[in-house]
# Entry
Amino acid sequence: MRSERSFCYKEEISPEKYCSKSKKYPCEPGKYYYGRGLLQSITWNEYYGAAGKHLGLPLLKDPDLVARSTEVAFKFAMWFWNRNVRPALYLGFGEITKRVDGRECSNWRRDGPNSKVKQYIEFCKMLGVTPDQGLDCF
# Structure
């Protein structure tokens, strides 16, 4: 389970290893690179390695640091957001969803985008703003 319970968990409920062959950011023995922190869609050793390099943190050696430290969790999420999501903000909610977790927009998870869109529309109503036009990510 990834982010269905928005901001309730520090780690994925059913984590996978998320270790791919990488010369630049090789997996450490016994370490797993599943979602932790605020954006649990940030997975794989490549993201942990790149974020760790940018932030000056040993995230490949200690990926649990993201779950243990609120400060690191925020830095990790902001690094990912600014690198991958921010450039697409003007493209709409659907494109943002795709950039946060592309699997949400595939056949792998047909209910994912719909529940996210429903949440987004509810938040817009609570804030008294109009949802943008680009809601779909297929």
Remarks:
- The chain has two domains: 1-87, 92-127.
- The CA atoms of residues 37 and 73 lie 5 Å apart.
- The chain has a mean pLDDT of 85.
- The first helix runs from residue 45 to 55.
